[in-house]
Design brief:
435 residues, Aspartate Aminotransferase, domain 1, Aspartate Aminotransferase, domain 2, seven-stranded mixed β-sheet, alpha/beta, 13 helices, 16 strands
Length: 435
């Protein structure tokens, strides 16, 4: 027992001291002056700090904790699986949690996706998808298809292949110039979700595919919702036309449903808004409802059998914790919990409450736009926020949000009730009124 930890537990101050000395946080400098808030417990939609303050979580822990925290069904699934085994290597073994989860994903995902490759995180699921696309074309004897087409304002992850298809200006290209593969980019879909369709919205993409399709292995897109790249919602018709163009020009379509999978947009998968199926689909975030890290990449039988019919006869990837039994067991319980509920009505309820609760923000001089889709609410400001200044103010108001750039947004747990949603929206606007 260390001197900082009476009764075997660290105090809030001890946690902060160790953190300051040793821990590196995401997108943060070491020895940063950014405020940190030690968490002692979380339950329902609330995060409880060491100092006793309770914060209503508007972020679902980066969009993952869709059933809130400490859910008895999910706790029970984890406890039961731990009693059997937490993990065995996936090379040479299989097990019930992985089999059940794979069957759920195949049955629930857009038609035609029959093979499931498990990995550790959303970024890795994108790496897997891109590697699948490259190995597929190599297996077909086409060595010219080595590049990927992506969209401006896109975000697909932080690993190297994933970084290469993120926005070329606001992404990481400038920091890693010369180290990242040079991909092909088109303008982000400019047609709003409910906007009348006009073919000019997709003209640049059509021209790019016409000119360069022979070198493009696949197109990556976040269906309907561009997430961390700006929380933009675009027309389902764009996605439908994209699917048609991929078929016309013999290019694979990769759908990044890491943020939108399992109901966030109002459909189980955002691809359903357009009635299309991708060739490859990536999932993460919501898969275990925030309990454990797990991701999945789904593909068609044709892609899988083509890859395995050519040298080296296998897909060249295999994470150590692939198919982790504990994560798969929780993911199965998560999906069962979601499907047993009237989740579509629940998402519609959240959408209506966010529309009502965020509407007053439109009158603020600092606000450029307010938009809502499913269980996603976005306030776009004219100027970027100062995160270090605004986050403590949200905490003082009893809410947890993590703005970035010009965006103050919320993706609440699906279990958040109307009173809590009203509190979340109202306190957000109170902070912005003095922004």
């Amino acid at each position: 027992m260390s001197p900082e930890s009476p009764n075997g537990r660290l105090s809030g101050d001890a946690i902060l001291a160790i953190d300051k000395a040793h821990i590196w946080h995401p997108y943060a400098a070491v020895n940063s002056a950014a405020p940190l808030f030690p968490v002692k417990r979380a339950e329902g939609c609330e995060i409880i700090l060491h100092d006793g303050r309770r914060l209503l979580d508007g972020m679902s822990s980066w969009w993952s904790a869709i059933h809130g925290y400490n859910h008895p069904r999910l706790n029970a699934a984890a406890t039961q699986q731990i009693a059997d085994f937490s993990h065995v290597m996936f090379g040479g073994f299989t097990h019930e949690p992985a089999a059940r989860l794979a069957k759920y994903l195949v049955n629930l995902s857009p038609e035609g996706l029959q093979k499931v490759f498990f990995s550790d995180s959303g970024s890795v699921s994108i790496e897997v998808a891109m590697k699948l696309a490259l190995q597929y074309w190599l297996a077909r004897g086409d060595k010219s298809k080595q590049r990927f087409l992506s969209f401006r304002h896109a975000y697909h992850g932080d690993t190297f292949k994933a970084m290469s298809v993120c926005d070329p200006d606001t992404g990481m290209h400038s920091h890693f110039a010369g180290a990242l593969d040079e991909q092909i980019f088109c303008a982000a879909p400019a047609c709003a979700f409910t906007e009348n369709w006009d073919e000019h919205f997709i003209e640049e993409l059509k021209n790019t595919l016409h000119a360069q399709h022979t070198e493009i292995a696949a197109i990556l897109i976040e269906p309907i919702v561009q997430g961390a790249g700006g929380m933009r919602f675009y027309s389902p018709h764009y996605l439908k036309r994209l699917r048609e163009l991929c078929d016309t020009y013999n290019v694979l379509l990769i759908a990044d449903e890491i943020a939108t999978g399992l109901g966030r947009s109002g459909k189980l998968f955002a691809c359903e808004h357009a009635g299309i199926a991708p060739d490859i689909l990536c999932m993460g975030k919501t898969l275990t409802a925030g309990y454990l890290t797990l991701a999945a990449t789904l593909c068609t039988d044709e892609i899988a059998t083509t890859i395995c019919s050519a040298s080296p006869g296998v897909f060249m990837h295999g994470p150590t914790y692939m198919g982790n039994a504990l994560a798969c067991a929780v993911a199965c319980a998560n999906i069962e919990l979601l499907l047993e509920s009237d989740w579509q009505a629940g998402i519609k309820r959240i959408e209506q409450q966010l529309e009502r609760g965020l509407a007053p923000a439109r009158a603020l001089a600092s606000v450029a736009d307010v938009r809502v889709l499913g269980a996603i609410g976005v306030i776009e400001l004219h100027d970027p926020v100062d995160l270090n200044a605004i986050q403590p103010r949200f905490v003082d108001q009893g809410i947890w949000l993590r703005p970035f750039g010009k965006l103050v947004y919320m993706m609440p747990p699906y279990i958040m009730n109307d009173e809590q949603l009203a509190f979340l929206c109202g306190r957000t606007i109170e902070v912005l009124q003095t922004q």
